[in-house]
Each structure stands twice: as C-alpha cells, then as structure tokens.
C-alpha cells in the first residue's frame, strides 16, 4: 500500500468517525413532544416569576414556534438577533411565534441583554439548575442554538437553521 492510499484511507476513516463523534443524530426527536421532565422544568418570566415550561408551550399552541437559545454574554447570539428581526419582518402577520430562552445565570445580565437585543417575542430565562435538561435533550454544545416547533407544539426541527440562513423562512412557511 502506497502512502497516497494510506492518506486517503485515513481521511475517509476520520470523516466518518468525526461525523459520528461531533454530530448527534436528532431525527428521533422530530414530530415528538418534549419529555415530561423538560415540560416540568421551571423558567423565569420577565416579572421574575417561576413557571413551568409546559405553560409556555401550551400558550403557544396553534402557532409555529422558532425557539432561540441565547445569552447576553454570547457575541454570536446578540449579533444574530438582527437576522432574527429580518425573519420577523419577512413573516409579519403569519402565525409564527418567537421564543427566546436565555441561558444567563444572572437575572440582571439577562435584563441588560434584553435591552441590548430589543426584539419582539416571548422572553424567558432558563432555570440555571435545570437548563441541562434541554441541553441534554438536543445535545447542545454551544449557543446560539435554534429549534422549530409545529402548531401542535411538537418538535419539527431539533437543529434548525440560523436566522441568517435563507432556508429558515421556507421551513417556517411550510409549517404554517
């Protein structure tokens, strides 16, 4: 076996292995509801009240929901909000809800971040002691991270495109 063949074989093995290692298949989540433990998770409202995540989900039934996991300290999250505003403009008057779930540990940082991003939607802060439930469910390794829920509240896309990606508008529109 010559060196070129060995390099090609190594490259093929690396590509196959890295896809398995770095990209968890989430297709089993498509068209499913959130598990009970995630629905029971507590989130903080703008009024600093704790409510169950299931209450948030129930209030949004009947609308396609674009979910954005973000934090005030996350530069890419904050920069991508401009693109989210463009998505909102494009789909204005459509039954699409925008759910922003902050992973900020500190309430004051979250509130400051809300002023900075200044975007319409439903805003909640994940309970720091329970946010691992969502992180584990979607194998979230970093933020921003996006998912899409259908009108029934089922997971339509467990790893949705970023707002800057043109295919996001088509995905949301197809679910209307």
Describe the structure.
By secondary structure, the protein is α/β, with parallel strands linked by helices. It has one domain: 3-Layer(aba) Sandwich (Glutaredoxin). It has helices at 3-22, 36-39, 53-59, 75-90, 107-117, 132-137, 167-174, and strands at residues 42-44, 50-52, 64-70, 96-102, 122-126, 145-149, 155-157. A 7-stranded mixed sheet has the order 2-1-5-4-3-6-7. β4, α5 and β5 form a beta-alpha-beta unit. The longest helix is centred in the first third of the chain and has 20 residues, at 3-22. It is globular and about 65 Å long.
Any chance you could write out the topology, listing elements then pairs?
Blueprint: H1 3-22, H2 36-39, E1 42-44, E2 50-52, H3 53-59, E3 64-70, H4 75-90, E4 96-102, H5 107-117, E5 122-126, H6 132-137, E6 145-149, E7 155-157, H7 167-174
Parallel strand pairs: 3-4, 4-5
Antiparallel strand pairs: 1-2, 1-5, 3-6, 6-7
Which features characterize this protein?
single chain; 176 residues; alpha/beta; Glutaredoxin; seven-stranded mixed β-sheet; 7 helices; globular
């Amino acid at each position: 076996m010559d060196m070129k063949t060995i390099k090609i074989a190594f490259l093929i093995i690396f590509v196959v292995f890295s896809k398995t290692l770095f990209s968890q298949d989430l297709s089993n989540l498509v068209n499913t509801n959130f598990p009970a433990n995630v629905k029971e998770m507590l989130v903080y409202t703008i009024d600093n009240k704790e409510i169950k995540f299931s209450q948030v989900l129930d209030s949004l039934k009947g609308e396609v929901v674009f979910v954005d996991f973000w934090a005030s300290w996350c530069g890419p999250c904050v920069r991508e909000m401009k693109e989210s505003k463009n998505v909102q403009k494009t789909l204005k008057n459509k039954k699409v809800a925008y759910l922003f779930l902050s992973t900020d540990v500190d309430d004051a940082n979250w509130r400051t971040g809300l002023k900075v991003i200044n975007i319409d939607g439903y805003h909640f802060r994940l309970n720091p002691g329970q946010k691992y439930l969502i992180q584990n469910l979607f194998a979230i390794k970093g933020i921003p991270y996006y998912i899409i829920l259908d009108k029934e509240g089922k997971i339509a896309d467990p790893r949705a495109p970023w707002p800057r990606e043109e295919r996001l508008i088509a995905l949301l529109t197809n679910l209307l």
